[in-house]
């Protein structure tokens, strides 16, 4: 990223749950009417790949939550 170190980027995080962050990003991407799914967000990363990663992360979080809930009771 330009004009910022990766260390600085990773130091600051939103004060909300990961699933909320993912849902926020997915909603913004869903509302985007400017870009095609095969376009690049940045070099060598398409919107399709970004969406796939976010959806996979969301699925993993939900699976872990279900497993945690099942182990509790």
Keywords:
mainly alpha; two-stranded antiparallel ribbon; about 70 residues
Characterization of this structure:
With 73 residues, the protein is mainly alpha-helical. It has helices spanning 6-11, 18-31, 47-72; strands at 40-42, 45-46. It has a two-stranded antiparallel sheet. Helix 2 packs antiparallel against helix 3. The protein is extended.
Q: What is the element layout, followed by pairings?
A:
Blueprint lengths: L5 H6 L6 H14 L8 E3 L2 E2 H26 L1
Helix pairs in contact: 2-3
Tertiary shape = extended
Instruction: Give the strand line-up of the largest sheet.
Output: 1-2
Point out poorly predicted stretches.
none
Question: What's the end-to-end separation, in Å?
Answer: 45 Å
User: Roughly what is the average pLDDT, rounded to an integer?
Assistant: 95
Q: Structural class, judged by helices and strands?
A: mainly alpha
Count of alpha and pi helical runs:
3
Question: How much helix, percentage-wise, in residues?
Answer: 55-70%
What pattern of helices and strands is seen along the backbone?
HHEEH
In short:
The chain is mainly alpha-helical and 73 residues long.
